[in-house]
Amino acid sequence: MPDIRNIVILTGAGISAESGIDTFRDAGGLWEQHRVEDVATPEGFARDPDLVLGFYDMRREALLSKQPNAAHEALAKLDRGWSGELLIVTQNVDDLHERAGAKRVLHMHGELKSALCLSCEMRSPWDAPMSDRPPCPVCQAPSLRPDVVWFGEMPYQMERIYAAIRQADLFVSIGTSGAVYPAAGFVRDARELSVRTLELNLERSEGSHWFHESRQGRAGELVPAWVDEVMAG
Ligand code: BV8
């Protein structure tokens, strides 16, 4: 890859699929079992907090038995060995990038293992259920919600993401359907800034036509191969 110094990587549910974590839109995925508006919106939470807390309790509990896969490991290897700028912007709320050893990770849609208190607005590391309304570790109020970004809520650290894209030489999208904004629009922002763009995904996505190059295959195969390629210079 010619003179690549600064890289932004966007990951989606597809990078965790081979770890056994359901994606959203594949057959049998999360959105097949639940309507988005019922479990991933503030309105859904207000309407039925038990349903929403139970949905995230189930996903948080399932995550405890999952392991990073070869794709997460490869990105962690890149993170350790890359002397230029690198930012892994993940739409995923799992912690598999971190458990593989990646450091330069940004969770734009929050994390299953974080709790947000509706009373004191503080965030706390969290890996237990919330359905039993546990006290906030900071203010003790029984008012914790999952620290994830629901539809209609502002994703986290958007300015930092756009700043990284402005500095990037390469934007790589891995395992995402390109269906949800603003993440799905990053490739266009990159193109407008003459950043080179690459997609690694099981199948063509809604945004494939925006990429200079789009490779189809499993992340567990494509990502390690691409990391070796980019580290070889
Ligand atoms: C906002 C966290 C603004 C929670 C998630 C009309 C037009 C355009 C936009 C909108 C619109 N109406 C509303 C909007 C905005 C809305 C949106 O985009 N809606 C869509 C449905 C049209 N967006 C929002 O609301 C966002 N906020 O816009 O705020 C704002 C402005 C001012 C003030 C306030 C607010 C917030 C969106 C965030 C929602 N939260 N997740 C949780 O996890 O429960 S979204 C969730 O789905 C993910 O985080 C991700 O972002 C999104 C898409 O999922 P993917 O990761 O792509 O997974 P998916 O299953 O779809 O695809 C998997 C892919 O992997 C597939 O392509 C598959 O082929 C591939 N794959 C499978 N296996 C493998 C593989 N690839 C490789 N290897 C494999 N083995």
Topology:
Layout: E1 7-11, H1 30-33, H2 36-39, H3 42-47, H4 49-63, H5 70-81, E2 86-90, H6 96-100, E3 105-107, E4 110-117, E5 123-125, E6 144-148, H7 158-167, E7 170-174, H8 186-192, E8 196-201, E9 213-216, H9 219-231
Parallel strand pairs: 1-2, 1-7, 2-3, 7-8, 8-9
Antiparallel strand pairs: 4-5, 4-6
Ligand BV8 binds next to loops.
Structural commentary:
This protein is 33% helix and 19% strand. It is an alpha/beta fold and 233 residues long. It has two domains: 142 residues, Rossmann fold; 77 residues, SIR2/SIRT2 'Small Domain' (2-Layer Sandwich), CATH 3.30.1600. A six-stranded parallel beta sheet has the order 3-2-1-7-8-9, with helices on both faces. A three-stranded antiparallel beta sheet has the order 5-4-6. Strand 7, helix 8 and strand 8 form a beta-alpha-beta unit. Helix 5 packs parallel to helix 9. 39% of the residues are buried. The mean pLDDT is 97. Bound molecules: ligand BV8. The site of ligand BV8 has 36 residues, from loops.
Describe the structure concisely for a colleague.
By secondary structure, this protein is α/β, with parallel strands linked by helices.
| CATH class category name of the largest domain | Alpha Beta
**What is the distance, rounded to the nearest whole angstrom, between the alpha carbons of the first and last residues?**
6 Å
Sheet-strand content, in percent, reads: 15-25%
User: Which structural class do you get from the secondary structure elements?
Assistant: alpha/beta
C-alpha Rg (nearest Å): 18 Å
Can you tell me the residue ranges where pLDDT is under 50 for at least 5 consecutive residues?
Answer: none
Mean pLDDT comes to 97
Small molecules (ligands, ions, cofactors) in the structure: ligand BV8
